[in-house]
């Protein structure tokens, strides 16, 4: 019997972009839950203990990805967190070294995102 696929919460204020990110992960064998923004993400996480990781957009109204990360850590959520940004990832990576991964939304994302999530979930 194989283990159930990891359940990834995808957070994006743009429904289309969230669905695309979800499709990238689903094509790599993950189950996904789509959340429209930070507040919705917190509610979904509170109600679904099976979520193994969060992949969040950076720029969202109300609560951006960094604020969501900080709130989740404050609440004791220690699962992997991947931040996606339309900007250059390196400055965010340097500014937030406690974040497991910061990726740029570019043409490489389809290959890079599943690899990064797999490596983070595989860590003990």
Automatic annotation (TrEMBL):
<feature type="modified residue" description="4-aspartylphosphate">
    <location>
        <position position="57"/>
    </location>
</feature>
<dbReference type="InterPro" id="IPR050595">
    <property type="entry name" value="Bact_response_regulator"/>
</dbReference>
<dbReference type="InterPro" id="IPR001789">
    <property type="entry name" value="Sig_transdc_resp-reg_receiver"/>
</dbReference>
<dbReference type="Pfam" id="PF00072">
    <property type="entry name" value="Response_reg"/>
</dbReference>
<keyword id="KW-0597">Phosphoprotein</keyword>
<feature type="domain" description="Response regulatory">
    <location>
        <begin position="7"/>
        <end position="120"/>
    </location>
</feature>
<dbReference type="InterPro" id="IPR011006">
    <property type="entry name" value="CheY-like_superfamily"/>
</dbReference>
<protein>
    <submittedName>
        <fullName>Response regulator</fullName>
    </submittedName>
</protein>
<dbReference type="GO" id="GO:0000160">
    <property type="term" value="P:phosphorelay signal transduction system"/>
</dbReference>
